[in-house]
Amino acid sequence: MWAGIGSMVIGRHLFDMTDGWEGSPPAGEHVVVVSHRPKPEGWHPEASYLFVDDVAKAVAKAGELAGERIVAVAAGDVGGQAFALGLVDEVAMDVVPVVFGSGKRYFGSVDAQHLLEDPHTVIRGDRVLHLRFRVRRQPSGFPPLTEE
């Protein structure tokens, strides 16, 4: 999966926490940062990082940059916004045996129920379980999905 990533969409919080991986994307060749603040002045001018103030525009730009490759959207508030807008086709999760007791929601503050298909990829690693789920699409004109 990692080799297939062409671009990433991340939020400003992740960018600031990692210092944008010092201008070298951890996957793919391009990073689109969703932020109302511009790129820090003088920060790695050679890096293929764009700053966009709208999630939908960021995903569209990342798609252009990725070409036929995958656009990876980071979890958290930006991922939740992309998910709520219907811009996410698949969710990848890595489960590890640690219980923190507090923290951020995986998709930020998503305020509606969304269902995923059964995992189509399950890889058991050393103290990690890698899962990939397709997003279940709701046909237009039907009431919200519920699991019975």
UniProtKB/TrEMBL annotation:
<dbReference type="Pfam" id="PF01872">
    <property type="entry name" value="RibD_C"/>
</dbReference>
<dbReference type="GO" id="GO:0009231">
    <property type="term" value="P:riboflavin biosynthetic process"/>
</dbReference>
<protein>
    <recommendedName>
        <fullName>Bacterial bifunctional deaminase-reductase C-terminal domain-containing protein</fullName>
    </recommendedName>
</protein>
<feature type="domain" description="Bacterial bifunctional deaminase-reductase C-terminal">
    <location>
        <begin position="31"/>
        <end position="118"/>
    </location>
</feature>
<dbReference type="InterPro" id="IPR024072">
    <property type="entry name" value="DHFR-like_dom_sf"/>
</dbReference>
<dbReference type="InterPro" id="IPR002734">
    <property type="entry name" value="RibDG_C"/>
</dbReference>
<dbReference type="GO" id="GO:0008703">
    <property type="term" value="F:5-amino-6-(5-phosphoribosylamino)uracil reductase activity"/>
</dbReference>
